[in-house]
């Protein structure tokens, strides 16, 4: 092998525990510490797994989200919220930037699968087997049939009472009671004289676009998800997301979490590098080198072989290919991999309307020159972004448009952590560029 130092891709990870109208008024210091402890514990365990030789983004992302599903603090798995009918209907999804036939899958209307994210992973993996392990070529499945596959695949099945927590039940009951009280108040104004009550208007505080009273702008009711985005040493990105949905949602409602492009997305592409980078390539350095593992995982055999040959002080200029036979070789030497993965959290119906995370990916991929993912995410989920715009004049009154996005962007061999949100707060934890674990809920320290 060449004596040139080879550098693999540095693994990265970020997780989230939901977003919404979180404030210092409704998040006590004790509650904050509980969330912080859980998020950092999950991050620590997942990061340790990510550093093991051969660790994959798919396995680590699944592991991280399964830990959050087991913690009743979060709106997923054990801590899932209730529908208006007093039932739990869970959703999950998983997607990789490359390496699997289906790339992404969504699971919905789950009532008996202990860890929905593990089902999503198996759904994805089974896609590479004959008949998709019973799921055929489908990328979205729901309800009884999917839970039957979960049992066949050996996943843990539980009775519905496993998901019961008193905290979520109390939130459910308070929401229904608030709706009844609000309905009675509105009824007082339904007469032939709309201004008969001293010219006042009918009360609308707390009503969403469809009369949803669960959002009052004061209490933090989980309307988001838990999620993880992971980059492994092979350059593969994976996003894993799980949720119980909106508090007091209608039975059968499907949100953004299991919907490709709305609440989760991962993709990669190859883009041309600058002419100067193409023509004169110096010896690999810690900032530009690509590992043999990476080249092997991408099928870049010519580049892998070149690592085994003696290198000169300065590589010769690339000669532009003149025949179609050399086209693929030319592309290998003049392009770099660019990949993104994101998980959304917040008002799922708003994420659906703007296809939020795929929109952010498209902004990054198809703008010229390419827009950094951090800026693209802010254009969608940041203050004044597409999510907020989708709420129109209902912004700040109904909970519509609220949410945030976490993600990772890979350019060449460098991975960057990304996060932004437009609401009160978003629970998130990540390992920063210096290798230190971080945890925040607001845009400044608690």
Automatic annotation (TrEMBL):
Residues 193-218, 315-346 are annotated as: Disordered. InterPro entries: Ntn_hydrolases_N, Peptidase_T2. One of its GO terms (molecular function) is hydrolase activity. The active site is at 225 (nucleophile). One of its GO terms (cellular component) is cytoplasm. The record marks 224-225 as: Cleavage. Residues 315-334 have a biased composition (Polar residues). Substrate binds at residues 253-256, 345-348. Gene3D superfamilies: (Glycosyl)asparaginase. PANTHER family: ASPARAGINASE (EUROFUNG), L-ASPARAGINASE. This is L-asparaginase.
């Amino acid at each position: 092998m060449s004596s040139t130092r080879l550098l693999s891709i540095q693994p990265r990870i970020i997780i989230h525990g939901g977003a919404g109208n979180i404030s210092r008024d409704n998040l006590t210091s004790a509650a904050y510490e509980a969330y912080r402890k859980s998020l950092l514990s999950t991050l620590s365990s997942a990061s340790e797994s990510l550093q093991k030789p051969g660790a994959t983004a798919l396995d680590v992302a699944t592991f991280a989200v399964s830990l959050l599903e087991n913690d009743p603090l979060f709106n997923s798995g054990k801590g899932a919220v209730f529908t208006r009918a007093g039932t739990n209907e869970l959703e999950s999804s998983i997607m990789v930037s490359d390496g699997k036939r289906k790339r992404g899958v969504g699971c919905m209307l789950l009532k008996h699968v202990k860890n929905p994210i593990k089902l999503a992973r198996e759904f994805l993996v089974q896609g590479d087997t004959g008949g998709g392990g019973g799921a055929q070529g489908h990328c979205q499945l729901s309800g009884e049939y999917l839970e039957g596959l979960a049992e066949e695949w050996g996943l843990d099945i539980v009775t519905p009472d496993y998901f019961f927590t008193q905290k979520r039940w109390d939130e459910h009951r308070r929401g229904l009671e608030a709706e009844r009280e609000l309905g009675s108040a509105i009824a007082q104004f339904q007469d032939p004289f709309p201004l008969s009550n001293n010219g006042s208007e009918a009360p609308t505080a707390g009503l969403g676009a469809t009369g949803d009273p669960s959002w009052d702008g004061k209490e933090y009711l989980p309307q988001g998800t838990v999620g993880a985005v992971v980059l492994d040493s092979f350059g593969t990105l994976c996003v894993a997301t799980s949720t119980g949905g909106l508090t007091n949602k209608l039975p059968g409602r499907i949100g953004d979490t299991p919907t490709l492009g709305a609440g989760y997305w991962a993709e990669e592409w190859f883009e041309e590098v600058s002419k100067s980078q193409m023509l004169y390539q110096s010896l690999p350095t810690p900032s530009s080198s690509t590992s043999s593992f990476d080249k092997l995982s991408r099928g870049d055999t010519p580049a892998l072989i070149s690592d085994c040959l003696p290198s000169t002080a300065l590589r010769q200029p690339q000669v532009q290919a003149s025949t179609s036979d050399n086209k693929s070789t030319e592309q290998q030497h003049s392009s770099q991999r660019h990949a993104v993965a994101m998980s959304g959290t917040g008002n799922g119906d708003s994420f659906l309307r703007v296809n939020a995370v795929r929109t952010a990916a498209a902004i990054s991929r198809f703008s010229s020159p390419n827009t950094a993912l951090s800026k693209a995410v802010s254009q969608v989920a940041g203050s004044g972004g597409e999510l907020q715009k989708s709420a129109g004049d209902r912004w700040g009154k109904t909970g519509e448009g609220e949410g945030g996005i976490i993600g990772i962007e890979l350019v060449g061999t460098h991975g960057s952590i990304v996060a932004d949100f437009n609401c009160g707060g978003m629970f998130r934890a990540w390992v920063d560029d210096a290798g230190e674990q971080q945890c925040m809920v607001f845009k400044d320290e608690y």
